[in-house]
Amino acid sequence: MAVRVKICGITRLQDLHAACDAGADALGFVFYEKSPRHVTIETAAALLRELPPFVQSVGLFVNAEPAFIESVLQAVPLDLLQFHGDETPIDCARYGRPYIKAVRVNRDTDLLKYAADFDAARGLLLDAWVPGVPGGTGERFDWRLIPPDLPKLVILSGGLTPDNVAEAVQGVRPWAVDVSSGVEAIKGIKDAHKIAQFIAKAKAS
Q1: Which fold would CATH assign to domain 4-204?
Q2: Which GO terms fall under molecular function for this chain's record (predicted)?
Q3: Domains of the chain: which residue ranges?
Q4: What burial class does residue 42 get, using C-beta atoms within 10 Å of its C-beta: 0-12 exposed, 13-18 middle, 19+ buried?
């Protein structure tokens, strides 16, 4: 079964088209002001109006106030929510939308406990643990820390590039891979060639 690919941190229409044309299964939109890939509600709504059918839209939040998330959902027809902060299972479920929970992984991370606590999540997005940063660092973690019996679908993130995504897919066998900085020209601006390479290598693995 071919791995799914999410291109995260879309900020421009040309990057949206490049990702969709290359075969992306999902696009991520970052609603976190401290990120260089942050989009406003207005920008995200305009981008999603151009999203073709069968490509899923994912909204990324980091410890956001419920009122802010509700305002996003009123204006932006997101398919899936992604929580990248310290949200509890109740926090994640309160919107009545399907969601995934991001987990920053190091040697002390109990992924089996996360899977049990967030049993309503559609999957766990596994990213590298970097002090003080909720994600999007471009750092890779030790994939051997993922339990083989993890009872949740794995979305593998953290330090993935066109050069290592085949190794990641073959070694981890995740449900999906997620990339942002690994396919950028500069922060917040994607490179269409890198996107195409990343998706082709991921899906061929």
Answers
A1: TIM Barrel (3.20.20)
A2: phosphoribosylanthranilate isomerase activity
A3: 4-204
A4: exposed
